[in-house]
Amino acid sequence: MLALGNDHGGYTLMRYITGVLDELGEAYVWLGSKTDERCDYPDFAAAVARAVVSGEADRGILICGTGIGMSIAANKVPGIRAALCGDLYSAEMTRRHNDANILCMGARVIGDEVARRITEVFLRTEFEGGRHAVRIAKLVP
After folding, report:
1. Which of 31, 41, 73, 81 reaches 20 to 30 Å from 8, CA-CA?
2. Quick check: is 8 catalytic?
3. What are the angstrom distances between the C-alpha of 64 and each of 24, 36, 56, 90, 105?
């Protein structure tokens, strides 16, 4: 199960990503704004982060205009490893080496097809563990 969140700047891209997730047969709960009316990204980042930390969701996807604000806000929640990705390699490596549990994207930075491919890579890439697990353990406060 995925938890999804977006602000007004990420609404259109998130609507597109929900269609992608439907095509892929991925279950999700959409906790973000359902309009493009101005709203505050930290509220949605916190909701998704809490859903992931509580186990309600396995991972999350957050989208705002740049992805930066969502990433900063989500990473304030202990246990969250939110990664801003704008390319396929970063999406793969953040799962493989960092065990990122939230993907952040910027709707004003990447287009639909890039967002689709980043999402697919993020969802299908597994954490390698091993030496990377040791490093992840050092991130816990």
Report:
1. 81
2. no
3. 23, 11, 22, 18, 7
